[in-house]
Amino acid sequence: MDIRIHAPLDMHLHLREGALLRLVAPLSARDFAGAVIMPNLVPAVDTLERLATYRAEVEAATAPHTFAPLMTLFFRQYDEALLTAVRPHIIGVKLYPEGVTTNSADGVRDLQRIEPTLAVLERLGIPLLVHGESHGFVLDREAEFLRTYTRWANLFPRLTIVMEHITTAAAVRLLDEYANLAATVTLHHLLLTLDDVVGGLLSPHAFCKPIAKRPEDRAALLEAALHAHPRLMFGSDSAPHPVERKEAAGCAAGIFSAPVSLPLLAELFARHDALDQLQAFVSDNARTVYGITPPAKTVTLAERPWQVPARYGEVVPFYAGQTLAWQVVEVA
Ligand code: NCD
Ligand code: ZN
To answer: Which one of the listed residues 31, 46, 217, 237 is annotated catalytic?
Structure first.
């Protein structure tokens, strides 16, 4: 069996910088027609100049693949002049609450104080991408943040708010309540629960933010993905860290899933008899939500086993060493 996907998109991707970028970026650029590139570098991508430099670095690392880097700016209280200038160069602004994840020490402390800036984003038609976690108990962080999404969805009805990497059934339900809310979901949150992270031997390569939740949460996410809920988009949140930062006391959060994303999605959708929904989930929904036209690129996946490498350079991939049933066999 095989399947063709037109312009697959990864709507949440960490490519890093320097040698790590050059290692991981070609893997995404081979399989995807474009990706939303996260700005949580050190220092963050928060000026026009830094944005241009980073885009050039990404383009150099992804050539000669057909691949559109959809750049984001790290949220700050920018003024209207800056946002107007940057608008043609970005797909959205990415907001991190202070300290909730990798490289977010410089995120937002007081969520109410930034509302005037959100009003400017709304006026300029710039989407707001949000890492929606509170500073509460780890399993409740997303659920607690849903109040903030609700407040902003009401206050800014013309602002597109993307709830990044949702992990709970409650977030799926909220999607249906507000037309201006959209969401991304990762591959790993469709496959894992908290049991896979800490239920047996501690599994650093399954540790990410937000942490995987309960079986019923995973079931709700999977149900929405398999039915290609029109405002749910695939975003891998592939987040590579060198192995010594993962297999360590004090394991960094992030799962490197880029090289296995499309194969495992095909396997998952095939297993649930939902391959006909994959095109919408990995491309069409994102085109509609963001109003974008990705470059032409057709990726064919076939049911043909391959073994995931144990390492890509210094990085351990999701499903390292395991045999997957599907692989990308042609890119045109
Ligand atoms: C991401 C990273 O490493 O940059 N980590 C993660 O666990 N997902 C940051 C993020 O998206 O939270
Ligand atoms: Zn992320």
So the answer is: 237
pLDDT tens by residue, 144-176:
999 999 999 999 999 999 999 999 999 999 999
Domains of the chain: 8-295 (3.20.20.140)
* 164 CA from centroid of ligand 2 (Å): 8
| Token pair listed for 229 | 């809920």
Per-residue pLDDT tens for 211-247? 999 999 999 999 999 999 999 999 999 999 999 999 9
Distance CA 164, CA 234 (A): 10
pLDDT (0 to 100) of residue 69: 98
Best of 11, 13, 14 to mutate for ligand 1, by most ligand atoms within 8 A of CB? 14
Burial class (CB in 10 A: 0-12, 13-18, 19+), 244: exposed
Report the alpha-carbon distance of residue 219 to residue 215 in Å, rounded. 6
pLDDT at position 210:
98
How far does residue 208's CA lie from ligand 1's centre (Å)? 6
Q: Using an 8 Å Cβ cutoff, are 181 and 127 in contact? A: no
Q: Do the Cβ atoms of 186 and 254 come closer than 8 Å?
A: no
Give, using CA atoms, the residue closest to atom 5 of ligand 1.
254
At 184-211, the pLDDT tens digits run 999 999 999 999 999 999 999 999 999 9
Q: Residue with the nearest Cα to atom 6 of ligand 1?
A: 254
Global confidence as pTM: 0.98
For this structure, is 237 an active site residue?
yes
Could you say which ligand is closest to the alpha carbon of residue 205? 1
User: Between 115-124 and 141-155, two packed helices, what is the crossing angle to 10 degrees?
Assistant: 60
Residues with CB under 6 A from ligand 1: 14, 40, 101-102, 131, 208-209, 237, 239, 253-254
